């Protein structure tokens, strides 16, 4: 019985802490709107949206690209988005031949073009391959949107827009990242559903 009570207490604490962090997402609302408009303008001008991240953030990158290419809530025409985290052959070849820090920047070199938008997702804010991709994106005139936690030291200098979740706990940061990312997808989809009526 004590073990069940401990699990219950730990679960309540986790959810309370998660909710506290989650509520701070409203502080980013103006930035979220600006990022949504940036993405819409990029697509309208014949560009695309890129995503990349490591670990759980790689899954977020894949997920968000799928929301834009496929649909978020309603059926519509596909929109251009690519996850740089999705091809294991590319990821392992670049890691093996050049080093893991270049696994995303080499892909940016290959397919990125001026005025594309790239989402660089790093809960730690210090992932070398995300920093390299940010550097390469800035060199090429690609607009950078950075999702991170409270540590922005390495990435802020490369950002056009940054969402830094007020936490050092990866799980809470990732919960916010996927929700904010999906809100941006929702805004993009709504724009096009209204445009295509």
Tell me about this structure.
There is one protein chain. The chain has seven helices and five strands. 55% of the residues lie in helices and 12% in strands. The protein has helices at 2-23, 29-44, 56-69, 88-98, 105-111, 128-139, 170-195, and strands at 49-53, 81-83, 117-121, 143-148, 161-164. Strands 2-1-3-4-5 form a five-stranded parallel sheet, with helices on both faces. By secondary structure, the chain is α/β, with parallel strands linked by helices. α1 (2-23) packs across α7. 37% of the residues are buried.
Which SSEs are present, and which pair or pack?
Layout: H1 2-23, H2 29-44, E1 49-53, H3 56-69, E2 81-83, H4 88-98, H5 105-111, E3 117-121, H6 128-139, E4 143-148, E5 161-164, H7 170-195
Parallel strand pairs: 1-2, 1-3, 3-4, 4-5
Helix pairs in contact: 1-7, 2-7, 3-7, 5-6
For this entry, give a set of tags.
alpha/beta, five-stranded parallel β-sheet, 7 helices, 5 strands
Outline the low-pLDDT stretches. Answer: none
- Beta-sheet strand percentage? 5-15%
How would you spell out the order of helices and strands?
A: HHEHEHHEHEEH
Total strand segments? 5
Percent of residues in helices comes to 40-55%
Question: Helical segment tally?
Answer: 7
The CA-CA distance between the termini, in Å, is 58 Å
Strand-pairing-aware structural class: alpha/beta
Query: Largest sheet, described in full?
Result: 5 strands, parallel
Shape: globular
């Amino acid at each position: 019985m004590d073990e069940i009570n401990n699990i219950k207490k730990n679960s309540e604490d986790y959810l309370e802490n998660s909710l506290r962090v989650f509520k701070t997402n409203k502080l980013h609302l103006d930035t979220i709107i600006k990022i949504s408009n940036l993405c819409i303008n990029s697509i309208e001008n014949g560009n695309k949206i890129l995503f990349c991240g490591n670990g759980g953030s790689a899954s977020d990158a894949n997920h968000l690209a799928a929301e834009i290419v496929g649909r978020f809530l309603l059926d519509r025409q596909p929109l251009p988005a690519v996850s740089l985290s999705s091809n294991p052959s590319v990821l392992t070849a670049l890691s093996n031949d050049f080093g893991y820090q270049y696994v995303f920047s080499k892909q940016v070199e290959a397919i990125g073009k001026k005025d594309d938008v790239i989402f660089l997702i790093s809960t730690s804010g210090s992932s070398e391959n995300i920093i390299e991709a940010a550097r390469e994106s800035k060199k090429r005139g690609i607009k950078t949107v950075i999702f991170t936690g409270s540590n922005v030291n390495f990435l802020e200098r490369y950002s056009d827009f940054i969402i830094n979740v007020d936490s050092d706990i990866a799980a809470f940061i990732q919960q916010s990242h996927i929700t904010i990312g999906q809100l941006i997808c929702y805004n993009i989809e709504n724009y096009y559903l209204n445009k295509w009526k």
